[in-house]
Write a structure and sequence with these properties.
The protein has helices at 17-32, 52-65, 86-100, 115-128, 187-197, 200-211, 240-259, 285-298, 305-317, 336-339, 341-353, 359-362, 365-375, and strands spanning 7-8, 11-12, 43-47, 68-73, 105-109, 133-138, 144-146, 153-155, 165-171, 176-182, 215-225, 265-270, 332-333. By secondary structure, it is of the alpha/beta class. The chain is globular, with a radius of gyration of 20 Å. Bound molecules: nicotinamide-adenine-dinucleotide. The site of nicotinamide-adenine-dinucleotide has 29 residues, from α2, β4 and β11.
Length: 399
């Protein structure tokens, strides 16, 4: 069938297999043209492995360090005439490429928050690796979580705390810049967001792997966070998601303690703001991202998920000298280029000027939109969208 993008709000309900394949192959190509990560991990579990930062983490581990990978995600296979989700196609592409390169790669599709999927993952590691996981990447981004102990369903919200937040925002499809007022979260919404996106599940994963004695001596685990500038503070770092990220940071301290018995370490990596399915859902942030794209591309400092995660592994987690550079609060900062004063001053000056009339000139809205469509396999170079596609694509290890 011919596949076209169907955008509904901030998501696209269709995905193009050939475009998703191309995106994954391009990321692999990037990694294989960089210096190999000689001291990198060898058995890697990636939670949230099918898109965004998690997909790039899997690619860097496999193609940068020749690691065996198990990737876990929650994606939708094709159903009759309905396409699969992009993460499904991404994983199919990844597994095919890994197999061609002689790299072990298996995947699990299901709810990472559940005990059942944790057990399934443990069984697979026990059966295939017998232990020795030396890196666990926690890259889940989910709007909801069913708590495995109580069965209660929690929803995360992206809201300010304490007062209404009024800001400029953009409709990325039309380019219309307007003011938006976002009501503050209720105390329950704050707690629920922490339950979904905070660190409890990360700790549960590491506890389960520790109990099953599947973690190697010197294991590392890393979860991803974001801080951002004063401009987005009310909706991000001081909003509901910021509370969840603070909880994630606290979890990293608990995990450091727990893992010390096997000389393991837990890290938070603060990453750059990029167009992903998760970030597209945050109010106001797309306007900020279109501005940093513009400024960072002009300064030749732009990175995507793959460049960010390659740098995280090569220059931070697996540096040749074994030292992992962190900031004064113990966080890895691969948002360093985004947050540098020069970039932020320029973005802030543009932010105050941007309006309907100058949005195309002052921002890289075109680049934002292209990246958004690319997430779903559209607007990818060298893909013939006039050609019919088979939507039913298998992920070999899920057969
Ligand atoms: P994404 O939407 O691109 O990917 C999310 C992944 O989580 C997918 O693989 C999805 O299948 C998986 N997932 C979601 N719910 C799941 C569930 N219940 N069970 C199993 N898998 C599930 O997200 P992303 O933007 O790459 O975000 C990953 C992490 O990086 C998040 O913690 C996010 O806060 C952080 N981060 C993102 C940005 C950004 O700008 N995108 C910046 C800094 C940090």
């Amino acid at each position: 069938m011919l596949i076209e993008p169907k955008v509904r709000g901030y998501i696209c309900t269709t995905a193009h297999p050939a475009g998703c394949f191309r995106n994954v192959l391009d990321q692999i190509k990037y990694v294989t043209t960089q210096r190999p990560i000689a001291t990198g991990p060898k058995k890697v579990l990636v939670l949230g492995a099918s898109a965004g930062y998690g997909m790039s983490s899997r690619i860097v581990a496999a193609f940068g360090a020749k690691a065996k990978t198990i990737g876990l995600f929650f994606e939708r296979p094709a159903d009759g005439k309905r396409t699969a989700s992009a993460g499904w196609y991404n994983t199919a592409a990844f597994e095919q490429a890994a197999s061609r390169a002689g790299l072990y790669a298996k995947s699990i599709n299901g709810d990472a928050f559940s005990d059942q999927i944790k057990q399934k993952t443990i069984d697979l590691i026990q059966q295939d690796w017998g232990g020795g996981v030396d890196l666990v990447v926690y890259s889940l981004a989910s709007p909801r979580r069913t708590h495995p102990r109580t069965g209660d369903l929690f929803h995360s919200v992206l809201k300010p705390i304490g007062q209404v937040y009024t800001s400029k925002t953009i409709d990325v499809m039309t380019g219309h810049v307007s003011d938006v007022g976002i009501d503050p979260a209720t105390p329950k919404e704050i707690d629920d967001t922490v339950t979904v996106m905070g660190g409890e599940d990360w700790v549960m994963w590491i506890d389960a792997l520790l109990d099953a004695k599947l973690l190697a001596k010197g294991v590392k685990t890393v979860a991803y966070s974001y801080i951002g500038p004063a401009l987005t503070e009310p909706i991000y770092s001081k909003g509901t998601i910021g509370q969840a990220k603070k909880h994630l940071e606290e979890a990293s301290k608990i995990l450091k303690e727990k893992l010390s018995i096997i000389s393991g370490e837990a890290f938070i990596s603060v990453n750059k703001a990029l167009v992903t399915q998760a970030s597209a859902a945050i109010p106001v942030v797309p306007l900020y991202i279109s501005l940093i794209y513009k400024v960072m591309k002009e300064k030749n400092m732009h990175e995507g998920c793959i460049e960010q995660i390659y740098r995280l592994c090569a220059d931070f987690l697996y540096r040749k000298d074994g030292h992992v550079p962190v900031d004064a609060t113990g966080l890895i900062r691969i948002d360093d280029w985004e947050m540098c004063e020069d970039v932020q001053q320029t973005v802030s000056a543009l932010w105050s000027k941007v309006n309907d009339g100058n949005v195309d000139m002052l921002t890289d809205l075109t680049g934002y939109r292209r990246d958004f469509y690319k997430l779903f396999g559209f607007e990818v170079e060298e893909v013939d969208y006039g050609k019919t596609s088979v939507v039913d694509v298998a992920i070999p290890s899920l057969e």
